[in-house]
Amino acid sequence: MNNINKTTTKCCITIFFLCLLAINTLQAEDGSNLWLRSETNANATVSANKQSAAIDIAINELRTQWRGAPIQLTVSSAKNLRYLGNDGFMISGNINTKITVTAFSEQGLLYAAYHLIRLQAVGNLPENIDIVEIPKYQLRILNHWDNLNRSIERGYAGKSLWEWEKLPAEISPRYKEYARANASVGINGSVLNNVNASPQILSAEMLEKVKIIADEFRPYHIKVYLSINFSSPVELGKLSTSDPLDKDVQKWWKNKADEIYRLIPDFGGFLVKANSEGLPGPQDFGRTHLDGANMIADALAPHNGIVMWRAFVYNPTDNDRAKQAYQEFMPFDGQFRSNVIIQVKNGPVDFQPREPFSPLFGAMQKTPVMPEFQITQEYLGFSNHLAYLAPLFKECLDSETYARGNGSTVAAATDGSLFGHNISAIAGVANTGDNVNWCGHPFAQANWYAFGRLAWNHNLSSENIAREWLKQTFTNNEEFVTTITDLMLRSREAVVDYMMPLGLHHIFAMGHHYGPEPWCYFPNVRPDWLPPYYHKADSAGVGFDRTEKGSNAVSQYFSPLHEEFNDIKTCDERFLLWFHHVEWNYEMKSGRTFWDELCYHYQHGVTEVRDFQKIWDKVEQYVDAERFVLVQYKLRIQSRDAVWWKDACLLYFQTFSKKHIPYDIERPIYDLDDLMKIRLKEPDIIKIKN
Ligand code: BDP
């Protein structure tokens, strides 16, 4: 570029930013403060009956942000407060005269402080307060799929927050900021490393580093957990086997647990992915998941640690992948040690934009089971697409399992209320990274927030969570909040529509899972890793027959769901292709043929995102320029991607249906042949799109 051009360019850029400033006088925000943006000059009067690191935090948060009557914090071990559990609290009083906060444990005071600050920030404080809050799940845990080299499996917001290379000497200020953000929404645990775990995480050197992070988190009552690799005794301990029934192996795990607890006395426990997707596990030695889980549980039991054993297991057999977790785990129900909890993904396959709930929820009754959600949007457009996930989480939690008749929702089956287990837990695969705004997309922060809020109270509505998040993260302006809440509530359904409507699933491009590749086929790849396994399109129709005549996955659900899903006439159309191979001409409830309905769903997804762009542009006056432009930019990507998805899927399925796309639907703008040539690698997507 010559100099004149350079100067002109510079001038243009300056004028552009001046214009932006003139249009938008709100101070630019980089999103680093998340939803914790209250002014900190309140100078409130706050006192407590005890002193501790956690109580100091509670006092400091209130002192700097609370604008109301003096607050007295009381922690008391009185018997009549036991029902509050470790995390619950009571708040009473009048916001103009005096407020009393009481808890059984210090962390209750911490959560109460954040509760009060939130109520104030969203304008929901009644004059007279009388609140009792007890979280629904005891353990509310983030799972980080972070590798030791700081890459993040399925992470779309930069590198891992854990700076292993600098630890233990240098301590990033973000450890505390992260802990604070979690505590503010009630999250109380973090699994620091990837479920595809390196054995090295348990080395003495790494444990010294983990200890530092645990120390940073402790005042915020975030417990640290680690994912372990089942063959650590061989890989790290140089034993000749990792057989769970071998005495030396058992001893190795006991010693390892002792070593960890010497460093981290409140260590939470282990998360285990075993015999899944090529990882080692007890079955390598002819043992079972039960043998493996109980052996690890015995090592942790003396320290009150727990084992979260994942049910995400499947093998390339003739058997329907969606049935395998249930088949593997149900026979062991009731035989696990009391400190084992089975961690089950929300759906039977894998974090798809929509799945029915996993039939293990409700079916496993004698063993505690915890739901695992994915907050990071591996299958929902990464950090490029705006998809508010509270509706997805709630769709699962509110699903009726019929395990004990009406009222046996997934939430009730897992929060301890239905089956009375001693441990209850819920996990979300984190979407955080070292990006300045933590999550990549400004709206992805809402999913972290929503996970925490629902883990605390799954009865909260998606709408209220969105409203409170928006008010704290952007502005209290009612027009903004109402308009964008509506957009958020529509956003996940829009993604389902332009990616995989009507029960379609796993038709993603191989590997990165970003774009569409329903045609993807390699002769040497496991069939259950390829889209045709899931959509089974042919000239007759499309969809996976899981009815009694097909794989019979419907039989894993209680009556009346079993029968409802089994019958194409009664099956919820949102799950139609999940359970049925549907003929192209099948008549849908709308009166349209199935093919037409499919086309309209894809179109609807595209139309929705275009509408989101318009809506966002209209609220420009309420948003600072930095975040406004970023969201606007990401919505453009999302719009283009939605058309890409629609064209790819409709053109591909059309090769089977041989039907025309209804004429009132936008014509494809891409050629199938060209779309089939796209080969994105994960780093490319991040580079191109960010
Ligand atoms: C799949 C992800 C893979 C994870 C796996 C899991 O593609 O990266 O390792 O889930 O949950 O969805 O273990």
Characterise the protein shown here:
Helix content is 39%, strand content 10%. The protein folds into three domains: 46-133, Chitobiase/beta-hexosaminidase domain 2-like (Chitobiase, domain 2), CATH 3.30.379.10; 139-469, TIM Barrel; 496-522 and 591-689, Alpha-d-glucuronidase, C-terminal Domain. The protein has 690 residues and is α/β, with parallel strands linked by helices. The strands form three sheets. The protein has an eight-stranded parallel β-barrel. A five-stranded mixed sheet has the order 1-2-4-3-5, covered by helices on one side. The longest helix has 33 residues, at 625-657. It contains 22 helices and 15 strands. Helix 10 (360-363) links the parallel strand 11 and strand 12. Helix 7 packs across helix 8 (289-300) and helix 13 packs across helix 14. The structure holds beta-D-glucopyranuronic acid (BDP). Beta-D-glucopyranuronic acid is lined by residues 153-154, 195-196, 273, 312, 350-351, 378.
Distance between the termini: 24 Å
- Whole-number tally of structural domains: 3
CATH class of the largest domain: Alpha Beta
CATH architecture of the largest domain: Alpha-Beta Barrel
**Global mean pLDDT:** 95
> Helical proportion?
25-40%
User: Can you tell me the CATH superfamily of the largest domain?
Assistant: Glycosidases
Class by SSE composition: alpha/beta
Globally, the shape reads globular
Bound ligands: beta-D-glucopyranuronic acid
Query: What kind of oligomer do you see?
Result: single chain
**Main sheet: strand order:** 6-7-8-9-10-11-12-13
How many β-strand runs? 15
Beta-sheet strand percentage?
Answer: 5-15%
DSSP helical segment count: 22
Low-confidence stretches: 1-22
- Major sheet details: 8 strands, parallel, barrel
CATH topology of the largest domain: TIM Barrel
Gyration radius (Cα, Å) is: 26 Å
